[in-house]
């Protein structure tokens, strides 16, 4: 019995150590609902079923936007309501959040250019107020749609920037934020053929691993979705593919741009010229873009040093060998013990016969 317990503890210990090597902690954060924002829809609302401002506006007129904010908590709260433009984040999705990213040069105007500035509102416990903004439509109007939003947040909150320090993507830390979208059109019902352009190809040099990027522009004054991008990085001299990446179910805001960042893979790369090829689709529309970029010696060295660190040897086979040896030892010990007991039984039978 003692031998069996020792073997059991030995096998369990090996399995436990192996599990520790592959385990990773998982953290979950719950964001509390600290306030609510409700749009007060005007008479020129195009869709009564939409839970946002979907408006037909008149050139030269001033559009009034009213947003009701309420504080359902038992504590006083100060909120900031910020007009924002709809932009496209580097994740390849249209977003309605504060950002310093400018609109594409093809934009006739933007929501923030036409709209009055941010408003700070103080709310007592369980109090509600109406915040008003004024959007002045250009006398000449505009083509297509202008998209933006009214972003409500706690002014004491912090932004966690992502994507090479670009605030077009960020995480909300210890707060709750709401945004009410605003869609403005002078001539509803217009349709546009999506027009995408490749603006630039190059290498981002963040604090971590160098990354290739393709800057994609949407010159269309309309939001579109179903964006799919298949990107490939190839050696310019040989045409050998060294890395690939796929974007699915993306979207782009009107007259916006974003950098599609492509990892350079996990293999060592020499300095020199590379090609970036993109196969882009949205519905039935297809675009094929390509551009060349140069990986410098410094960038190559940085990439290779991080790649070397990621290619640490895998010793899983040692754990398997140790487990097999443990099983063999247990089996051998069991066999020897059984043989010894059989010998003892034989000796005992011999003594009785004598």
Automatic annotation (TrEMBL):
Pfam families linked: WxLIP_HBD, WxLIP_PGBD
Transmembrane feature ranges: 315-336
Signal peptide per UniProt: none
Signal recorded as keyword: no
Record-linked InterPro entries: WxLIP_HBD (IPR021759), WxLIP_PGBD (IPR010317)
Superkingdom of the source species: Bacteria
Domain WxL Interacting Protein host binding: 168-304
Keywords assigned by UniProt, alphabetized: Membrane, Transmembrane, Transmembrane helix
Occurrences of domain WxL Interacting Protein peptidoglycan binding (ranges): 35-153
Protein name (database record): DUF916 and DUF3324 domain-containing protein
Lineage, uppermost ranks: Bacteria, Bacillati, Bacillota, Bacilli, Lactobacillales
């Amino acid at each position: 019995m003692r031998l069996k317990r020792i073997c059991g503890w030995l096998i369990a210990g090996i399995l436990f150590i192996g599990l520790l090597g592959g385990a990773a902690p998982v953290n979950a954060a719950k964001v509390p609902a600290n306030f609510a924002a409700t749009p007060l829809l005007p008479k020129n609302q195009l869709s009564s079923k939409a839970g946002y401002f979907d408006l037909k506006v008149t050139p030269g007129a001033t559009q009034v936007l009213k947003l009701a904010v309420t504080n359902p908590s038992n504590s006083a709260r100060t909120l900031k309501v910020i007009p924002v433009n709809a932009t496209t984040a580097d994740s390849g999705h249209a977003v309605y959040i504060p950002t310093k990213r400018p609109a594409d040069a093809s934009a006739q105007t933007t929501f923030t250019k036409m709209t009055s500035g941010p408003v700070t509102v103080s709310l007592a416990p369980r109090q509600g107020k109406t915040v008003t903004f004024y959007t002045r439509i250009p006398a000449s109007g505009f083509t297509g749609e202008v998209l933006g939003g009214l972003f409500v947040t706690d002014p004491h909150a912090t932004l966690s920037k992502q994507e090479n320090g670009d605030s077009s993507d960020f995480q909300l830390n210890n707060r709750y934020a709401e945004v009410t979208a605003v869609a403005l059109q002078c001539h509803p019902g217009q349709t546009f053929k999506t027009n995408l352009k490749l603006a630039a190809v190059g290498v981002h040099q963040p604090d971590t691993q160098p990354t290739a990027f393709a800057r994609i522009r949407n010159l269309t004054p309309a939001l579109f979705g179903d964006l799919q991008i298949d990107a490939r990085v190839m050696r310019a001299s040989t045409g050998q593919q060294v890395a690939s990446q796929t974007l699915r179910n993306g979207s782009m805001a009107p007259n916006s741009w974003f950098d599609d960042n492509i990892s350079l893979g996990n293999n060592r790369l020499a300095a020199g010229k590379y090609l970036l090829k993109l196969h882009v689709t949205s519905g039935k529309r297809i675009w094929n873009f390509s551009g060349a970029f140069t990986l410098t010696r410094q960038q190559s060295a940085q990439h290779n040093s991080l790649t070397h660190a990621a290619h640490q040897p895998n010793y899983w086979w040692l754990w398997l060998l140790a487990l097999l040896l443990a099983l063999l030892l247990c089996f051998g010990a069991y066999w020897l013990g059984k043989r010894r007991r059989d010998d003892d039984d034989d000796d005992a039978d011999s003594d009785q016969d004598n």
